[in-house]
Amino acid sequence: MSVSDRPLVAIVGRPNVGKSTLFNRLVGKRIAIVEDTPGITRDRLYADGEWLGREYTLIDTGGIQMFETDPLKAQIRGQAEIAMEEADVVVFVIDTTTGVTADDIELANALRRSPKPLVVIANKVDNGDQEYRNVPEVYSLGFSEVFPVSALSGRGLGDALDAIVGHFPAEDKDKAEEIEDERIKIAIIGRPNVGKSSLLNAILGEQRVIVSPVAGTTRDSIDTTFNFNGRELVFIDTAGIRRAGKVQGSVEYYTVLRALRAIDRADVVMLVIDSNDGLTDGDKRVGGFAHERGRAAVIVVNKWDLGRQDVLEEMPGQNPMKIFSEEMRDGMNFMAYAALAFTSATTGKGVTAAVETALDAAENHAMRIPTGELNRLLRDASDAHPYLDHGKQLKIYYATMPTVKPPKIVLFVNDPELMHFSYKRYLENQIRKTYAFEGTPLQIEVRKAADKERDH
């Protein structure tokens, strides 16, 4: 499935030739993780760019090593090959500081066999004449045109971009104007190796994200557009969030930041928990990130085919789903609103229901209670159980719901200091009896009423 109707440009090359730096330069944002460690960009990563009025989508790929036998690196090579198949134009990046290698030669031979338009970039021409001396060696690969470029500084990119755009299919002038993006965005979050990538692949029905038993193999957030029962969704598969104290080096630190940004971009998060491990402090921490940012949430209890069996063995005759649900509710009471879904990504069981649950949560996240109905609910709740502190009664004069995503209720009262957290929770529970808001937090803000609010 293509990410969009824009032309697709795949950036390929062996590890550490500067593909991610070029990718970030072309899209103007630090999207791909960039570090001087070979093999750091391990999945296809998509982002949009624009040149001379033509919009396109870039695909950054893991470095290709043609003779590699390591299983993970073999998967990376396979994904790069898929990216090349998807692309309208392929950009082949070579490092001028190291010269042409055996992998470059083998990849060049493979690219020549492809019918796709090809733009060859001799990268890392950063310091003037010294790197330019190696550019002729790139021509020895048999390409008629090579573009010397410094992705770091942007030198030479204009000519390369002209060539890339020149290969695009003719633009459809009759295409309707792009409408505002109202697609529901779902971030798949969780600790490393709980099955997030497997869950996304089960949803999509294709291996979009590398799946490996090595914890932390999804280092970047990968956006994937998907049509689900006629609705276009965007899935953000995030790298596993590790505890801050256990984040090793700049790569893992940047990964945590990326996952948090993915949560910020999402309408709803699917918090994946490994049922074999039960609820861990790490799960609570990740859930806390989503809760603090006011995101709708579904707790996805994954690997349930195995977890269910564990519960049955420990508690024969009990309902495994009920037992595990109670554990979730007790351990994550700050997310009592979150819906629960039980899945097995490897068998596909429960996966469709989990997506449907996420869509319900997203709808509740955007739900607004009419002002008149909201005030009636709160008036009935306060009349049924008035709140007094040292003989002084809390009076709610008026309520409004100024924003959604997350739903936020503002109460105008006689004295905000009188509002105890327990009474705020009581009011929330009363609201949820009529409007469940399942899957979404409900924020309640208390303000001192001005005279005009008191008149309502």
From TrEMBL:
The keyword Methyltransferase does not apply. GO terms for biological process: ribosome biogenesis. The keyword Hydrolase does not apply. It comes from the Bacteria. One of its GO terms (molecular function) is GTP binding. Gene3D superfamilies: 3.30.300.20, P-loop containing nucleotide triphosphate hydrolases. Associates with the 50S ribosomal subunit. Belongs to the TRAFAC class TrmE-Era-EngA-EngB-Septin-like GTPase superfamily. EngA (Der) GTPase family. This is GTPase Der. It comes from Capsulimonas corticalis. The lineage of its organism: Bacteria, Bacillati, Armatimonadota, Armatimonadia, Capsulimonadales.
